[in-house]
């Protein structure tokens, strides 16, 4: 099994894959916001929710549906900001997974990734992570 990556490249490829997998799991889980409503524990993410209120027309009251699921449609996501977050986060997770899987393939196939391309891709990942951390801290 030939490789086009150095030892550092192999470590970077596996760490990239672990980060991609963690990001994708976090994206699909509905536990972004936790709270309570009508004395029930509720949680929701960008496109999934657990324990949500529904209007019961026969009794003219609001009842809690205690199950997890996706929103019925893209327009059912509560706000435009959450819709944008869903699209951007989904695209980011998809691209991250694509880059990570390509890097892992570079561990098995020779001449798939050149040294220059690997260094540039790693540098871009590093700078992207640094920019995200700085923005998250209010700097």
From TrEMBL:
Compartment annotation: Membrane
Membrane topology: Multi-pass membrane protein
Gene Ontology, cellular component aspect: membrane
Pfam families listed in its UniProt record: L_HMGIC_fpl
Coiled-coil intervals: none
Cross-referenced InterPro entries: LHFPL
Ranges annotated as spanning the membrane: 87-109
Keyword terms: Membrane, Transmembrane, Transmembrane helix
First-listed, main subcellular location of the protein, grouped into a coarse class: membrane
PANTHER family, per database record: LHFPL TETRASPAN SUBFAMILY MEMBER 6 PROTEIN, LIPOMA HMGIC FUSION PARTNER-LIKE PROTEIN
Protein name: LHPL6 protein
Gene expressing this chain: Lhfpl6
């Amino acid at each position: 099994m030939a490789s086009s990556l150095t030892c550092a490249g192999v470590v970077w490829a596996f760490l990239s894959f672990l980060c991609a997998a963690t990001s994708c799991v976090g994206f699909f889980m509905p536990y972004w916001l936790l709270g309570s409503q009508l004395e029930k524990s509720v949680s929701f993410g960008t496109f999934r929710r657990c324990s949500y209120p529904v209007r019961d027309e026969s009794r003219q009251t609001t009842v809690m549906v205690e199950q997890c699921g996706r929103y019925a449609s893209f327009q059912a996501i509560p706000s435009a900001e959450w819709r944008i977050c869903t699209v951007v986060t989904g695209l980011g997770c998809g691209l991250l997974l694509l880059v990570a899987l390509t890097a892992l393939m570079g561990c098995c196939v020779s001449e798939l990734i050149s040294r220059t391309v690997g260094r540039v891709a790693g540098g871009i990942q590093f700078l992207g992570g640094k920019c995200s951390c700085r923005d998250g801290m209010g700097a």
